Amino acid sequence: MSREWLMHTYADPPVTFVRGSGSALYDRDGRRYLDFVSGLAVTSLGHAHPAVAAAVAEQAKTLCHVSNLYGNELAPEVAATIDRLIGGGTTHAGGQVFFCNSGAEANECALKLARRWGMGRHVVVSTWGSFHGRTLATLAATGQLAKHEPFVPLPEGFRHVPYDDLAALEHALDDTAVAVLVEPVQGEGGVVVPSSDYLSGVRRLCSERNALLMLDEVQTGLGRTGAWFAFQRHQLQPDVVTMAKALGNGMPVGACWARSEVAAAFRPGDHATTFGGQPLAMAAARATLAVMEAENVCERAVSAGASLRERLGALPGVTGVRGEGLLLAATLRAARAEEVAREALRRGLLVNPVRPDALRFAPSLLVSVAELDECAAILGEALAAVMGDA
Ligand SMILES: *Cc1c(COP(=O)(O)O)cnc(C)c1O
After folding, report:
1. 253 lines ligand 1 (CB under 6 A)
2. Domains delineated in the chain
């Protein structure tokens, strides 16, 4: 089928998939590929997880959508689960959730909530190299000028500081600033892990200046880094947490959580969405979170992440491995990540060249040791093919 009627926002795809199962994807010819991209950290339980598929199929036959004019039984239950996971898994954090359909929408909710809460103070500080979405406001928060340029003027009220730089943040938090929006690990920016005391320093500065700490956990959330949320490795309490990618294991679901005093700034009518929180999406989220808890995905991400890190670090041509849990990037001796990813794809492995000199790995959190071995074997061949032994 020709792609003639699709807007040309994406590069021409190198392969078209028709089916998936666990860590495997299949093209039309039945060829198998090992997926270490997971739809950009979305299918954290692998493709076509039977429990999620059954829940979605059952809900599709029961009730897909009623709008937020009416109640449904699933959204309150999923919100309660998210609040408990924000609290670490066993105790509730004591906040509320707004459901939406994507990461950008989750961040839009956070940005609007900050303005409502700030009552006049409205500047949101975010970091260079960050990624928060492609809507105009989340693009303005995104710290990448090349992505801004074609779309100026952007909404006002955004300020950027270098990532992992507390002095710059302190300087930026003047009395117009209402919030800091920051990723615990920069994902699209190249899997950049800040210093171990950075997030707690951001928390301290936000508290001193009465600004909200809003964590964008769209990529890092829900077990990916080895904790339910990446902030939980730092003993701090955020005011707002956004999530999306893995929440529906492939069904589009986003959520913005805020602690109660902050969430209370929204009154009925302030913010809304047609699809957000609908039964079909919530059935996917409920099943996804239930499987995640039953499978102890946090522990699995820690142990599989350590194994993958070891395998990647031993490959010739790899100069280092960074990241947390199963969100990893391998840096290469030469800026040839795109060629290496292309060679890996030819050999049946999906990896993402997140930077010119770095490959990103975000496999299923249920990945097996055999699949980690297979990834390392294929990647070793691809690296040798592109970089030789020189
Ligand atoms: C992917 C991503 C987003 C945007 O999510 P969409 O669903 O594409 O709108 C926002 N923030 C982070 C950290 C992301 O990784």
Report:
1. no
2. 53-294 (3.40.640.10), 296-387 (3.90.1150.10)
